[in-house]
Sequence to fold (469 residues):
Amino acid sequence: MTPSDPSRYTSPMFKTIIEPFKIKVVEPIRMTTREERQAALKQAHYNMFNIRAKDILIDLLTDSGTSAMSSEQWAAMMRGDNAYAGSNSFYRFEAAVKDLTGFAHIIPTHQGRAAERILFSTVCGKGQIVPNNTHFDTTRANIEAAGAEAVDFVIAEGKQPQSRHPFKGNIDLNKLEALLKEAKPGQVPLCMLTVTNNSGGGQPVSMENLRQTSVLCHRYGVPLFLDACRFAENAYFIKLREPGYQSKPAAAIAREMYRLSDGCTMSAKKDGLVNIGGFLGMNNEDWAQECRNLLVLTEGFPTYGGLAGRDLDAIAQGLQEVLDEDYLKYRLRSVEYLAERLAKIGYPIVQPPGGHAVYIDARALLPHIPTTQFPAQSLCSSIYEHGGIRTGEIGNAMFGRNVGGREIPSDMDLVRMAIPRRAYTQSHIDYVVELAEHVFKLRETLRGLRVIRQAPVLRHFTIEFEPIQ
Ligand code: F0G
Fold:
């Protein structure tokens, strides 16, 4: 049978889509009592980042760095060569990334934000503007740290949780063109597209939108970079939803996405299927040289970039496995399964569900809690208190801002249930659904939170709250 034969794992006679792997290594998880969790919440000041993993049953805080690696990846790690310069691991990694992306220069980094910092501090400065569909929090922060401005141009549907547009990650080409037209030469050093659009609900960008963005950017001499963390999930959405792509292999779709771009930042902790690692890819030789100079200063020599050789080998293998269509089919379906069950209970969720997570619209679920009292954070706390599941706030703590004591609220208040790759089974998800049903019944009793401490940037990581009585 050919690799793209959809009947390899599941007979066309049966509709059940199974996890296309079996379990070789297990890690115990621990149930706690409600009293223990209440104490943990209080000690954590109601910030999910402050809860210890030992106190969590199922961890849906993030899909980043939480993947289960395959036996082939572990085998690749044993082959890892840790030579300081020119390691065999680097050349295997470089070949795999070049084969996928086609970029001339591949620079390893320890994770996505290191790639962002190196890129933006090399190419951005004061007075410059970087457009994106929606900048992820670290992307925005790194652009701003370089003195430039980060602007979000996602299409209007991308901000409407209930809109069923198939590509809600698309960038608004009119807004982008208006910016490019108005900008002084060199004022827009690059344009980014985040695939999938994490902050907007894990929503895909269509190939058509990517192509038009590429044409537009190139007409104005502006390079297009992908924030490629979840490129494989985006590619499979294109296969499922975009006319003309149904019979094209996901790997070929991914290659086409990269070929329309001039570079990328990548956190391999997502679609690289590894626990640490990332890279920067680009065609511009001068930029690459400057980025390597900075890399040596802060990350390491250009053939390891802050990683062990074994990590580079695990990425090279992971990038191949992530494009396996049995895996991608299972991956998107398992997220959709959770979304369907939550919607059936009555949860307002971002529709259609994204590729790596389900996003609950906490503002719609808890209309009695104003944004300034962090409804999404309140829902995260309640889900943890009642069943030991950790979720993530993508709302006012993350995207709202406190400017001189005045709150500028975020566009949305979402709770993200991010699904680690290959780590949990369907019964774990069924437990999540049962807990969600319990919390749904209690929703009117949930209370808002008051900030007692916060940092000036990326406040959500360390923010501390107390409940409003
Ligand atoms: N870009 C996007 C779209 C991301 O989702 C992330 C990380 C990064 C860049 C930064 O990569 O963590 O390797 O430095 N997202 C994680 C998340 C943290 O939970 O969504 P990193």
Summary: Residues 71-321 form a domain with the Aspartate Aminotransferase; domain 2 fold (CATH 3.40.640.10).
